[in-house]
Write a structure and sequence with these properties.
Elements: H1 2-31, H2 36-47, H3 60-81, H4 86-117, H5 121-130, H6 136-145, H7 152-164, H8 166-182, H9 188-227, H10 231-251, H11 256-270, H12 272-275, H13 279-300, H14 303-306, H15 310-333, H16 340-348, H17 354-365, H18 371-390, H19 393-400, H20 410-417, E1 420-423, H21 428-435, H22 447-455, E2 464-478, E3 481-494
Length: about 500
C-alpha cells in the first residue's frame, strides 16, 4: 500500500511544486519584462535529463497530444474574448498575414536554413514552415501582461493574426513532410493534393467552427434561462464543447485550430451575457494549458543536444526575425496603407512560442531523417524570440509610437494629442483659415471627413497626420467614426504623412 501511495504522492508533489514555483517566478519575470511563458520552458529544461531533475523524457507522442489540446484551449479562450468590432480594422491585414505572410516567412526562412545548414531544399522549406507562424499563446500572454495600451489597428491585427495563422502553418508542415517523404521533385499530382488539402483544412474548419458556434450560442442562452448554471459550470460546458469541435474538425480533415477559434468567436459574441460569467474560469484553464504545455515541451528538450546546432539555429532565428518576418509583414501591410512605424512594430512582435515546437514534433513522428535537429532548432528559435522580442515589446511599442496614453492620464494625453481639440464635424476649411494652414481642395469637408479621406484607412485612436505646421491626431472614435481631433502646432510646412 505504501508503494502505491508513493507512486501517487511523489510525482504529484513534484509536479505541483514545480508548477507553483514556476508561477511565482513567472510573475516576477513578467515584472522584469520577460515573457511569463519563458519561465515554464526553462523549468521543464531544469527538470529534464540535463538539469538537476534528471528526468529522461522522450515521449513525442504524448507531447504532441498535450500540445495540440493545450493550443485548442488557448485558442478557444482567445476566440471567446475577441469582439467582432476587432475585425473592423484587423480582419484584412490579419488574413493576409495568416496566409501570404506565413508562406513568405516560411519560404525566406527556408532559404536561410538551406544556406546555413546545407539541407536539402525540401527539408529547408519544412524547417521554415515549422517556425514560420506566430504563436497565439505567446501573443495573447504578452498583450495581457506587457502593461502597454496599443492602438486598435495594431492590437487587433496582432491578436487576430495569431489566432488565424496556425492552420496555414500546419498545412505547410504536413504538405512539406509528404514532399520530403516522397524523395522526389514537386509534381502536378502533389500540387493538386496540396491545394485540395488547403481547401479542406480551411473549409471544414470555418464551416464547423461557425455552424457549431452558432448552435452552441443558442443552446447556452436557452440553458442559462432554464437552469442558471454558475460560471464554473459554464466554463466546463464551453471547454468540453470547444474540444469536441477541435476533435471533430481534425477527424474530418479540417483545421481544428481554426474551428475552435471561430467557435469561440461566434459563441463569445452571440451569447456574450451567458459567456461573461465563465471567462474568469476559462482564463484559468488557458493559463493551466500554457503552463503544462511549456513545461512538457521544456522537459522534451535536451540542452546538450541543442547546443550542437546552436550557431546555425541562431542564424535561422536571425533570418526569421531580421529578414523573413519584416519582409512578409511589409508585403502584406504596405498595400493597406499601414504607417511604416506600425509595420515595423508588427514585424518585430512576431513572437514564436509553443506552436513551432509542437510542429517540430510532426516530422519526428513521421520518421523524417534528421527530424530531431529540427526540434532542437525550433527550440532555440522560440527561446531567442521570447528573450529578445518578448522582453522588448514595451520598449519597441514606445519607440514605434503605437502606445496610447491611459484614459485617465490627462498630461500624457496632451503630450500625444496636443493641447487643443475640436469635434470631428468642424469644417476643415474654417480651421485652415483660422490657423493659417494651407487650403484644402474641398471646402465642404469636415475635419473628420478630411482626415479619413486623406489617411485612406479605417481611423483608430492615435492616428496622426501633418498639415502645414500642425499635427492632427484622432483623439476619440466610436464604432469606426471619428468623434474628436487633437491639434498640436509645430514648425514646418509639410504635406500629410
Amino acid at each position: 500500500m505504501t508503494v502505491l501511495l508513493d507512486f501517487l504522492a511523489l510525482p504529484l508533489l513534484t509536479a505541483s511544486a514545480l508548477l507553483l514555483v514556476s508561477l511565482v517566478a513567472g510573475l516576477f519575470s513578467a515584472r522584469l519584462g520577460f515573457s511569463f511563458l519563458l519561465v515554464f520552458l526553462v523549468a521543464g529544461m531544469l527538470l529534464g535529463e540535463d538539469g538537476p531533475g534528471g528526468v529522461a523524457f522522450s515521449d513525442f507522442r504524448l507531447a504532441f497530444w498535450v500540445g495540440n489540446v493545450a493550443l485548442a484551449v488557448i485558442l478557444l479562450d482567445g476566440g471567446l474574448r475577441t469582439r467582432y468590432a476587432t475585425f473592423r480594422t484587423g480582419l484584412r491585414p490579419s488574413i493576409l498575414l495568416a496566409t501570404v505572410g506565413v508562406a513568405v516567412s516560411a519560404a525566406l526562412t527556408g532559404l536561410g536554413a538551406w544556406l546555413l545548414l546545407g539541407l536539402d531544399w525540401r527539408l529547408a522549406l519544412l524547417l521554415g514552415a515549422i517556425v514560420g507562424s506566430t504563436d497565439a499563446a505567446a501573443v495573447f500572454s504578452l498583450l495581457q501582461t506587457s502593461g502597454v495600451r496599443l492602438n486598435e489597428r495594431v492590437a487587433s491585427t496582432l491578436e487576430v493574426e495569431s489566432g488565424l495563422n496556425d492552420p496555414m502553418a500546419v498545412f505547410l508542415t504536413l504538405a512539406l513532410i509528404e514532399l520530403a517523404r516522397s524523395a522526389g521533385a514537386m509534381s502536378a499530382h502533389w500540387g493538386w493534393q496540396a491545394l485540395l488539402a488547403l481547401v479542406q483544412q480551411f473549409g471544414w474548419g470555418l464551416a464547423l467552427g461557425a455552424g457549431l458556434g452558432w448552435a452552441m450560442a443558442d443552446g447556452l442562452r436557452a440553458l442559462a434561462r432554464l437552469t442558471r448554471p454558475g460560471g464554473g459550470v459554464r466554463a466546463l460546458l464551453l471547454l468540453s464543447a470547444g474540444l469536441a469541435v477541435f476533435a471533430s474538425a481534425t477527424w474530418m480533415g479540417g483545421s481544428g485550430f481554426l474551428a475552435v477559434y471561430i467557435f469561440g468567436l461566434v459563441v463569445g459574441n452571440r451569447a456574450r451575457g451567458s459567456v461573461a460569467p465563465a471567462l474568469q474560469a476559462m482564463d484559468g484553464y488557458a493559463w493551466m494549458a500554457q503552463a503544462g504545455m511549456f513545461l512538457l515541451l521544456g522537459l522534451l528538450v535536451t540542452p546538450s543536444e541543442a547546443l550542437r546546432s546552436l550557431l546555425p539555429a541562431l542564424g535561422v532565428a536571425a533570418v526569421l526575425m531580421g529578414v523573413a518576418r519584416p519582409m512578409a509583414v511589409w508585403l502584406c501591410l504596405r498595400p493597406l496603407r499601414f504607417p511604416p512605424r506600425e509595420i515595423a512594430f508588427i514585424a518585430w512582435v512576431g513572437l514564436r512560442g509553443a506552436v513551432p515546437i509542437v510542429l517540430a514534433v510532426f516530422p519526428v513522428m513521421a520518421g523524417i531523417d534528421g527530424a530531431r535537429t529540427f526540434f532542437d532548432i525550433a527550440f532555440v528559435v522560440v527561446l531567442t524570440s521570447l528573450l529578445l522580442q518578448g522582453a522588448t515589446l514595451p520598449w519597441a511599442a514606445r519607440r514605434a509610437g503605437v502606445v496610447l496614453p491611459s484614459r485617465d492620464d490627462a498630461a500624457a494625453a496632451r503630450h500625444v494629442f496636443g493641447d487643443f481639440e475640436v469635434t470631428a464635424d468642424t469644417r476643415m476649411a474654417a480651421l485652415c483659415a483660422f490657423y493659417g494652414w494651407p487650403a484644402i481642395d474641398d471646402d465642404t469637408l469636415t475635419v473628420g471627413e478630411w482626415f479619413h479621406r486623406t489617411s485612406q484607412r479605417p481611423p483608430v485612436e492615435g492616428d496622426q497626420l501633418r498639415w502645414g505646421p500642425a499635427k492632427l491626431s484622432v483623439r476619440r472614435t466610436r464604432e469606426g467614426v471619428i468623434e474628436r481631433i487633437g491639434i498640436r502646432i509645430e514648425g514646418g510646412m509639410d504635406e500629410p504623412t
